[in-house]
Amino acid sequence: MDIKVTRWSGGNSVPDVDRFLRRPAIDPAAEKKARRVLEEIRQQGDEAVVRFVREFDGAVLEPAGLAVSVEERKATIAQVDVDFKRAATEAHRRIVRFAQAGLRKDWTIATPKGGVLGEQYVPLARVGCYVPAGAAPLASTALMTVTLARVADVREVVACSPAGKEGALDPYLLYSLDLAGATEIYKVGGIQAIGAMAYGTATIRKVQKIVGPGGPYVTAAKRLVYGEVDLDMIAGPSEIAILADDTAPAEYVAADLLSQAEHGTGHEKALLVTPSAALAESVRKELVRQTARLSRREAVERVLEEGTLLVVVDHLDAGMELCNRFAPEHLEIMTREPRRWVSKVRAAGAVFTGAWTPESAGDFVAGPSHVLPTGGTAALFSGLSVDSFRRRSSVISLTRADLQDVLPVIEAFGRVERLDAHAQSARIRFEQK
């Protein structure tokens, strides 16, 4: 395998680095296809949904069979082994605990003349969670999305995930959706799931917001429906960057890079940045050695050749600069004093510090949601949180004295912006009758 190793000195242009950093958040070809599919779903509803389920997922379903029934839930969940149920329950407990701690509370402050200002948080009424299952059933994503919505007190939580060719969801994924508290579950994946949740059909009612990761087509579809619904972020193919010095074990670094390369879309990205040329070479050898033992070797090898870069820098400050330019979904810091570098992170979906914090812990059990921005958009967006499922409203309650105090300010802006009625709406309250 041709795993690229290059040098970079802060600020200079290196072709391999420049190419690696240039990654579109949205694939133009995927967006073109998504636009066509979404338009048919908008116009034809369930008829188009079942047609695309058959075309893209290989499942032959009628509209009445898109929803997972209560009986189907019970029968499928009975197939799940006790060990996984214990693991899922522990992950769910930790996710709930983190989400509850992160809930913002309503707050108020006093105005100068006895009034009140503040903010209140209200849960959305109906949200949609997309859970990928094409390359593998992402049971953890069911927990990392639906659980947060339930902690936020969303009453209707819709989950969509692609069925297998036999027309059923994976038992482990279905168990996780049930454990997390999904109120409706549909056997619909890809663009068609996004379209159904965004526009609504006779079978799947429209939601207010869609969250969850996906491949290039789901990511493109999500962007195209923004405005019809709210979105969490662009959460596409996985990516990881690791900032490491010569204290980092090469086998750990390689294993963590591979953990994201194996997702299977072929668009994943893996970056190592280190001042140690010896570590970079050791990691390169470890990547080859460990890949030979992986079940998804073919998918991983494609990412290692097309989406992996090992960069040697002059010092860790330059390395952090490059990591911030990359703005990765996941950033691991494996250095002598990893926590001292956290304050220098300017763009990352999630940060993992120290040799005992592999990214996989964040994917499955640590607590924060693993739904994170990709494609460089970690420079713009934050990851999914419990407050992603709530609306924030400001609350203003002035006294007569407060309004009299600010009346000159209102009149000044009304005059400059030529909005007479604005000024009048405040002034009229003090006019003699």
Provide the descriptors you would attach to this structure in a database record.
433 residues, alpha/beta, Rossmann fold, 43% helix, globular
Structural class, from secondary structure content? alpha/beta
- The portion of residues assigned to helices is 40-55%
**What is the CATH superfamily label of the largest domain?**
Nitrogenase molybdenum iron protein domain
Q: What is the count of β-strands? A: 14
Q: Terminal Cα separation, in Å? A: 86 Å
CATH architecture of the largest domain: 3-Layer(aba) Sandwich
Output the radius of gyration: 25 Å
Tell me, rounded to a whole number, the average pLDDT: 95
Give the count of structural domains: 3
Could you explain the architecture of this structure?
The termini are far apart. Helix 10 (250-261) links the parallel strand 9 (239-244) and strand 10. The chain has three domains: 4-25 and 236-366, Nitrogenase molybdenum iron protein domain (Rossmann fold), CATH 3.40.50; 28-103 and 116-231, Rossmann fold; 398-430, no CATH class. Helix content is 43%, strand content 16%. It has helices at 15-21, 28-44, 46-57, 70-77, 82-102, 139-151, 171-180, 190-199, 216-224, 250-261, 277-291, 297-306, 316-326, 359-364, 400-416, 420-427; strands spanning 4-8, 107-110, 116-123, 126-130, 156-160, 184-186, 209-211, 230-231, 239-244, 269-274, 308-313, 330-334, 350-353, 390-397. With 433 residues, the chain is α/β, with parallel strands linked by helices. Helix 5 runs parallel beside helix 7. The longest helix is centred in the first third of the chain and has 21 residues, at 82-102. Strands 1-11-10-9-12-13 form a six-stranded parallel beta sheet, with helices on both faces. A five-stranded parallel beta sheet has the order 6-5-4-7-8, with helices on both faces. The chain has a three-stranded antiparallel beta sheet with strand order 2-3-14, with no helix packed on it.
